[in-house]
Amino acid sequence: MFVRTIARLATVGLSLLAAAVPAWGEAPRSLSFRPMYEAGHVELIEDVRFGSDDDDDLGVLYRPLDYCVDAEGNVFVLDYHLTCVKKFDREGAHVRTFSRRGEGPGELARPRNLTATADGRVVVFNLSGHRFSVFSNDGDYLDAHGFNGSVRRLESAPDGSIVAMFRFLQHGWVQKGALYKVMRFSPDFSTHVDIDSAYVRIEQVVHETDDAIMKALSPFVTQPHVAVSPLGRIVVGHSEVYVLKILSLDLEPVQKIERDAGREPVTDRDREDYLLRYADDPDFQILVRENVKFPRYKPFFKHIAVDHEGHIIVETYAGPAPDGQAVHDVFDPAGDFVGRVTMRSGLGFRGGFAYAMMTGEREAPAVVRYRAARPESND
Predict the structure, then answer these.
(1) 3-class secondary-structure state, position 139
(2) What is the distance between the alpha carbons of residues 18 and 21, in angstroms, rounded to a whole number?
(3) pLDDT tens-digit series, residues 199-216
């Protein structure tokens, strides 16, 4: 196995860049995750739970769909069932609930994603009406900006710009695939530029008549991924190949990371687990079993994140890993490979903490903030 890094940043340049973006907050050195990356396992301790226990019921979550964290550590949770945003302070107390279901100014219709900008605004994308709704940090409606498409991921950059991954369903998309685009919007949404794009065959036809087409989700699709670093970098990659492109906020190439990691084969157990999602409709499950085509191999990775120090965290399909965890590849801010690390799946990072959204049946819906179990020594 090897890692190749092209156009590596100098250490001094990284230090200057980190100092240039204090609005995103700098966590104490003791909150570094680096020692655990080097040890091969990230052990987390639950620090605060947002939304699962509130005496007056105002902070209870029903169907959290997305969350974001601002520079002060406030957590905003988009509740799809209630069609609103709930704000919690950094200690987990419910501060306020804002917006509601509707098509009018400041109202939400099929909201999908949200992010907190560098200046504290909260941006929500509505699938119905295809628009970005912008609120103040206190939940006051500011304005809206229309944009046709469906957001799959929404992140903010230190300069106030917005990075979004859109999905577009064009004519013939079932056969050709949906068009995925990673785009960067200016802070006022007046301009946007394309960063990356790819066609993704998200569904397959399992039965077709003159009147209707029955489709099922494609298993193990390869697709674009994106994450934004607090150091002012945009990380993009397509999981069909293990290549990560690191761009400046002006979209100038900075680094290119390639890793020869191998791909995990799709197993019979994977096929059976996939079929379980259609267990409530046995007849349709039979159609799926007979007609859905599985790839030979899984994608190289399924998620990209960046921690508060600029480490790039790549969640892979490699195994084995304990239940609820996954094997991740970690790269330092200069692009050097740190190691393969087991940690909880689907983590987000902000201000020295890790975050996860709890939506399963075993416990009440919530967003949980974690801290490192073994802080770095300050000796």
Answers:
(1) coil
(2) 6
(3) 999 999 999 988 888 999
For residue range 62-114, list pLDDT tens digits in order. 999 999 999 999 999 999 999 999 999 999 999 999 999 999 999 999 999 99
**243 burial class (0-12, 13-18, 19+ CB within 10 angstroms)?**
middle
What DSSP state is assigned to residue 21? -
Which residues are CB-neighbours of 330 under 8 A, at least 6 positions away?
Answer: 37, 311, 312, 313, 314, 337, 338, 339, 340, 341
Superfamily of domain 3-263+298-372: TolB, C-terminal domain (2.120.10.30)
DSSP 8-state secondary structure symbol assigned to residue 40: T
CATH 2.120.10.30-classified regions of the chain: 3-263+298-372
Give the Cβ contact number of residue 329 at 10 Å.
23
Reported pTM: 0.89
Nearest to residue 220, comparing CAs of 176, 258, 261, 273?
273
- 3-class DSSP state for residue 217? strand
Distances (CA, A) of 72 to 86, 127, 176: 16, 28, 44
d(C-alpha 313, C-alpha 10), whole Å = 20
Q: How many residues does the chain have?
A: 379
Q: Which DSSP string do the residues of 79-120 spell out, in sequence order? A: ETTTTEEEEE-TTS-EEEEE--BSSSTT-BSSEEEEEE-TTS
Return the sign of the alpha-carbon dihedral for residues 33, 37, 38, 43: positive
Residue pair 88/74 in contact by the 8 Å Cβ criterion: yes
DSSP helix/strand/coil, 286: helix
Beta strands 64-69 and 75-79 are antiparallel
State whether residue 379 is helix, strand or coil: coil
Residue pair 162/117 in contact (Cβ under 8 Å)? The answer is yes
Which SS3 state, helix, strand or coil, does residue 294 take?
A: coil
